[in-house]
Each structure stands twice: as C-alpha cells, then as structure tokens.
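Protocol step 6 of 9: fold each sequence in the batch and record its structure tokens directly after the sequence line. For illustration, a two-sequence batch is reproduced in full.

Sequence one:
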Amino acid sequence: MIEATIYKALGDPIRLEIVKRLSITSTSTIGDISTDLGISRQGARKQLQVLVNANVVHLMQKGRQTHVILDTKTLQIASSFISQLERQWDNRLEALKDFVEESNSD
C-alpha cells in the first residue's frame, strides 16, 4: 500500500518540516535545508533519502548543488486516502444522527 510508505516517510518531525518548507518554496537545495533545520548535510541527506524512497521528493543535480523537489502527485495520493476516510466518517456520523433523531421522535 503506497499510502503506508508515504505516511511512514512523513511520520518523522524533521521530514515533515522538510515537506512543509518545500510546499512553500517547491524546491530547495540540500544545503539550504540543512542550514534552515540546523542539521548536518549528512543528516539532511539521510532524511531526504527516506522521502525519495517514498517518492515524496525527487533530487536533481544542478552543477555542484543537489536540488530537492516536492512531488505533489504523491501528496495527492495521501490526501485522497484521508479524504476517503473523511467521507466514510461523515456517512457514519450522518447515519448516527439520523438514528438518534429517529429514536427521539418516537
């Protein structure tokens, strides 16, 4: 299940912060990410590799810098999964509401 891989990748606070920042800037370098988050470049690379493996981000070499690009298609898969759960819960709550109202009218 691809959603499990995505959510596992997003389950770490540092990786989640990387995704939050990329959602604003859409692209960044590994150096910028390590500086912004106050972690080593090696630590940033380790966290990014998890996101790359889940297809949440892609790395692109430009000259001497490695750019990190957010993959919004993968995030849409995760969002669709949550939306599906929300619809199911909305339906359940609506059924419960109807049941309670019907019980009170008797």
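Sequence two, same batch, same settings:
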Amino acid sequence: MRRSASRRATPTADLRLLYFGTPDFAVPALRALASSSHTLVGVVSQPDRPRGRGRTLDGTPVKIAATEIGVDVLQPEKVGDESALAWMRAREPELGVVVAFGQFIPKSVRELPRLGLINAHASLLPRWRGAAPIEWAIDAGDPRTGISVMRVVKEMDAGDVCLVRETAIGADETAGEVSARLAELAAQALLDAVDQLANGRAVFAPQGSVRVTLAPKLDRGFAQLDFTQPAERLLRRIRAATPRPGVDIELVRAAKRMRIVRAKLGPDHFGHARPGALRVEAGRLLLAAGDAYLELEQIQLAGKRPMRADELLRGFRVPDAEEARTP
C-alpha cells in the first residue's frame, strides 16, 4: 500500500522500517506506516497471552493487524535474544519505530538500524514518563496532553524529542476515549517524524530534567475511591481509571457490586450527606462525596452489560440508607 504523494511537500528518500508494538493503541500507527511509501520490513510484538474468561491464546492486536497487512511478525520473550537479533538483522532495517511495545529494548536492538529507534509516547514529555501517561494526566487534571516522538534510549522515556503534537483533554473524557484519539495522533506524528528522518530534516532536542513527572503502571489501588475527597477529585479518578482498571463500588445493604462506567457532578440542592451515602432521586443514582454528590450515569453489574442508571433502577431497588464502600 502507498501513501498519497500529495502529502509530501518535497521528495523524500524512503526507509526500511522495523515496527515494535503490541496493544490496540499501536495499531493505527502500524497501518499508517504500512500505507506510506516507506517499506515495512517486519513487526516485533509481545508473545500471545491468555485473555478473557476462557483464557484463550489470542494474538496481540498488532500481530493480528500485521498479519492482515501481510508483514512478517516476530514475538520473542526477550527482544535482545540472539535469535531475535538474527531475525531483525536479516531484514536490514534502517529505522525502528516503537509504539507501546511493552519490553525493555537493549542497546543491541537500539543500535541495529543505522538511524536507531524512535518512539511515540502519549504525553507532553518530560511530563508523565512511564507506563500510564494518559491515566495520570487525566487524574492530575491536566488540560492538555499529546504525543512526543523521541529517540529510544536506555532510561525510560528520556530520549531527545524531535516532534510534539498536542491535543486538549475533554472535561468528560475517559482514559479510553483519550487513548483512542492519541493513537490516531501518534500515527500522524510518526509519519511526519519518519519523513523528517528520511530526508535529514529531523532535529532532536533534550527533554531536560526540571519538569519530569512519572506515570507508573496502574494497579487496583488506583481505582479505589476515598469518598471523603471532593466530588471533582473523585470524578477525575473515575475517568482516569476507565476502562482499566475500572472503578468498582459495593453496596453494603444490597450486597451488590457494581462498576462505575461514567459519572458527572450531581445536583447541589440536596445539602450535605455522609460520604459514601447513596440516594435515588427521580431515576438518578447519586453518590455522596466529601463536598457534593456524584451522579452515576452509567454502571455495570457483575456479568451484565453497562447500562444507564434509570435502566438499572427499573429492575433494582436501592435499599433505604444505602451506602457504598470500596471492595
């Protein structure tokens, strides 16, 4: 597949690209590069892992996409193993492109292509280096995020940056929604960065170390709500933890567990209530935070599909004086 010639203002020497990626986030960039005039010589992805309730051994999203495109795929347990290096050398790549690969990339791999490796990271570096930059940006209330294209170096997400693309974070957006937009932005940013490298116009600048913040991998503790905190603070945490790891609450009297899929600030005319108290008002399910109510707009009972609160309340009675706790 070839990219439209109208995209380029000047002729560019095409490159042989080796792509490293694993999850859904990395698929748009893979497809964009495969459709460009550059040559995709191979794809490296994480090994297949058991998924879902049946623990079936599904291919990674990048592997599935690469197979559809018709590009050879390597799935090493360790990308620096000699057999993996031999596979990559045989393809004679000139540049490596990394998007959410999921393994440490050693020097032997970083220096294999003559132009090295570049990575599209989902933050405005040096803010939010690490595994979960989108989630931590939403949780912190950042108004903007973006894609930074940088060199892959030994220190995580610390390489020199050659290109940045910014975008606003919507007031109601979840991490899943922002991630989907950034995946498309990463594809466009990488196309531009690869073109710049191909014709020798790329300029890399150090990130500096003054404004560095870290975005560590999320665990279940990230999704546990402290109901005494302000409603706006809880709302940011819910958006950041959706869809993964997901915010669950347990209704104490009803002995029901539910996941908050979407919420918003609730009405302010009910006055103060004990944090964690639940009330039903005109088909709305309200959860008291430290200073106000959250309205739980969309929720999911275990084993059920997500549904609006009014749908749930038509078949489920919330006991009087009900309260929530974190499981």
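Proceed to step 7 once all outputs are recorded. Observation for sequence two: The chain has eight helices and 16 strands.
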